[in-house]
Sequence to fold (485 residues):
Amino acid sequence: MFKSVFTRYITIFALIIGVSFLVLTLIISAMLKNYSIESKELLMRKAAQSTEEIIDFFRDYLAEENFDKALSRYNDRITSSVNANAEYSDSNIYVISSDGTTLSSSDKAAPEQFPYSVIVSATSSQSLYLLGDLGVFPEVRSNYLRILYSSDGDLDGIIIVSSASVSENILTSRMTSIIIAASLWIFLAALLSVYNLSKKISEPLNEISEAAKKFSVGDFDVRVKVYGKDEIAELATAFNTMAESLAHLEQMRTTFIANISHDLRTPMTSISGFVDGIIDGTIPPEKHGYYLNIISAEARRLSRLINSILEVSKLESKARKLSPSIYNLSEQTREILISFEQKITTKHIDISFECGSEDLFVYADRDAMHQVTYNILDNAVKFTNENGQITLRLETILQKKRKVRITVRNTGQGISEEDLPYVFERFYKTDRSRGLDKSGMGLGLYIVKAIVTQHGEDIKVNSKSGEYCEFTWTIPFSGENGKRQ
Fold:
């Protein structure tokens, strides 16, 4: 029942809202009831006080007569005042003697005699407010008792103000009903809001879940809909971005398998064919040297391919550890340039080497950075047009710390805008036709990126298709004298 997020959200929020409104309704109802009781008690007290003042007036007027005679002689006038006070307080008023006999009342069905227990309860205090039937009423009532004493301090009588409506006050009942009704409507509105909110949260999550299941069986074309601009929308966008990356990676993996199969099969076929030709005599002895050179070149090509795959495996498993040291970057760069002299001369490439200082020392893994510079320059030479230009620049810059920025820029076909985001990914080849890059496997720039990142630095590429391509990366600077900065 509670397996889904949507069900749990609805249940939890419904319980929270329901309990909150229930508690709120009970508290407000209790407050209203207390207020009603207090208001009623105040009215009953005033009614009793007013009745006492009327009785005292007539007692003072007939000072020589006792309490019972005063009430008997002026009963009509006193009863009229008692009725007015009873109507004012929405109660019944009874004036009883010291022995419990009813002398005056606003109630036509008033009991003739109140039990002695009422007298005892009343005389325990000057005034008393209590709940009960007083032994004469058919139901529990709210009763206010006020004692009447003579001038000598003797008990003359008791004024009883009694109301049966306090526990069922109309105003309180109506307000409680209104509060309950309003709470129910608010609860329903809140529940609908929570329902819609939960739907907006759970539906994209369900879509993402279904899409992830399709990913598990190799379907990377599915995408989830993005609603709004909240965190769920950001999650959906990130998921779609991941899906595109996975689809792109799957495409690259397929391309890589095709390329690696071709790169492995071609030299192996050549090696096998030439060896068989030498063994069976198809290739004459005077040609053995020529074909053995071809076999050697193909074997080296296979070795480079295997080394690249092993290098990627080491980088991804973090088995390759850096051994940073201080070395002369300017000297290393010159040595790498010299190693490309033949290729540069063959293509008539104009080389521009700009270095801010004769000697720039950096703190990095010498062999790893040699591989980075070599791979970038190899690509530059490979993709530079005939009679083109390559610019290699070394310069110091100040960021949080001083660094050496290396820039390699070459003219030529460049990299298209659609390919730029993927140039550092595994197995990605911008030269899909293999017209210029016949030996590449799409791993060189991935290895470069991994090495630079492992040094805590960054590498960027900027290019304009048909005009130029520029790679820029940084290395921690160590100074111009070989001392650590």
In short: The mean pLDDT is 78.
